[in-house]
Design a protein that fits this description.
Layout lengths: L4 H10 L1 E7 L5 E4 L2 E4 L7 H9 L4 H10 L1 E8 L3 E10 L2 E9 L6 H4 L3 H5 L6 E6 L6 H15 L3 E6 L12 E6 L7 H8 L6 E4 L5 H12 L3 E6 L4 H10 L6 H11 E11 L6 E9 L2 H8 L6 H6 L9 H10 L5 H7 L3 H4 L14
Parallel strand pairs: 7-11, 7-12, 8-9, 8-10, 10-11
Antiparallel strand pairs: 1-2, 1-6, 2-3, 4-5, 5-6, 12-13
Length: about 350
């Protein structure tokens, strides 16, 4: 048993999502979204380095010493998997670990709208799950992939850095590939995947122009592609994909995206007010023919109004989802106000509405 495993055991017992170990500070856990210090000695740099190196693959240690940053996955059988990031900082080494549960929850168990699980049944197209870091994108995607794994007879390939949720093949055949370990890059793995008879491809992060281009192409040529972006809503997600490309290529990618896109799910995570745990509020865009025409005609500014009128398709605005959670007593008015888009809509729910300094 590695010395650091005791921290992971504590993390699991406390229900923490993240563990922060930084030279010159006490360990810190993120519990229900808030940072809480662990009653432990201030971490010495040499001691922490030895603790971290005990669990890191040798090639990752070499990479860390050359670059100052690495990502990899670490697993304690019977407890959980962890996404690890090591980094150099002013006072020495640092590391952050995100817990990835070994049990994959279904869409219903996560309380996601019914339309989200239906995305697994799409025959082809591009589905994007977006939101800020730590908003639960990987958990939502894992639930959708699990739905496909249980209900379809397909070949699923996941491309991640590192591998997070591990899916055991059920009705589907599932292959996991890790960037840096099994393949050179997202784009190289995606290019290779197109020759590996896939039905469903999960791209852990669409971070560069080549990966985005290949993902859109795959979605337009008969594959079901899932990916993530760090964008805040559906309209900005579409704009972000197009704006990555040079001006002279944007018309073509806009046309390809309009052909391939099927849904955008943008989510924000809240601390629950009724019990321990967290709950997500989702903005959902289902790309019907009218939405795809807006994208093709460069009218993405009309997407919000299309979502508002598309409730029969399962679409919903983020603020509507937040208000639903608030009215059900699952989140507090303060949290709702903090993370909503339309502040005026939620001010009446506050006992003492703050002065919004952004409006001064």
């Amino acid at each position: 048993m590695a010395k650091i495993d005791a921290f992971f055991q504590l993390m699991n017992e406390q229900g923490a999502s993240d563990l922060h170990l930084v030279a010159g500070q006490q360990p810190v856990l993120r519990i229900r979204g808030e940072m809480e210090r662990v009653k432990y000695n201030v971490l010495d740099n040499d001691e922490l380095r030895a603790m971290l190196y005990e669990i890191a693959p040798e090639h990752k240690i070499k990479q860390f010493e050359e670059t100052g940053d690495i990502d990899f996955a670490y697993e304690i059988p019977g407890l959980a998997r962890y996404r690890a990031n090591f980094f150099q900082q002013k006072y020495g080494v640092g590391a952050v670990f995100r817990e990835i549960p070994t049990k994959i929850l279904t869409c219903a168990q996560l309380g996601l709208p019914a339309v989200v699980s239906k995305l697994a049944s799409l025959p082809r197209g591009l589905v994007l799950v977006t939101g800020p870091t730590g908003s639960g994108k990987s958990t939502t995607l894992a639930a959708i992939i699990d739905e496909a794994n249980r209900t379809k007879k397909d070949h699923i390939i996941t491309i991640e850095d590192p591998i997070e949720f591990v899916h055991q093949s059920q009705s589907c055949v599932v292959n996991h590939r890790e960037v840096g370990l099994h393949t050179k890059s997202f784009s190289a793995a995606l290019r290779g995947a197109l020759r590996e008879d896939p039905d469903i491809i999960l791209v852990g992060e669409m971070r560069d122009i080549e990966t985005i281009s290949l993902a859109v192409e795959a979605a337009s040529t008969g594959h079901l592609v899932f990916g993530t972006l760090h964008t805040m809503n559906a309209a900005k997600t579409v704009d972000r994909i197009i704006e990555v490309f040079p001006a002279n290529e944007q018309g073509q990618i806009r046309s390809n995206l309009a052909d391939g896109i099927r849904a955008v799910v943008s989510q924000v995570l809240f601390k629950r007010a009724d019990k321990k745990g967290r709950v997500a509020a989702l903005e959902i865009l289902i790309a019907n023919s009218a939405v795809r025409n807006l994208i093709r005609e460069s009218k993405t500014f009309q997407i919000p109004s299309m979502i508002q009128t598309g409730k029969k398709f399962g679409m919903q605005m983020l603020d509507d989802a937040i208000q639903d959670l608030l009215q059900r007593g699952l989140i507090t008015p303060d949290d709702a106000y903090l993370k909503c888009n339309d502040k005026q809509r939620f001010r009446p729910f506050l006992k003492t509405p703050p002065a919004d300094f952004t409006e001064i």
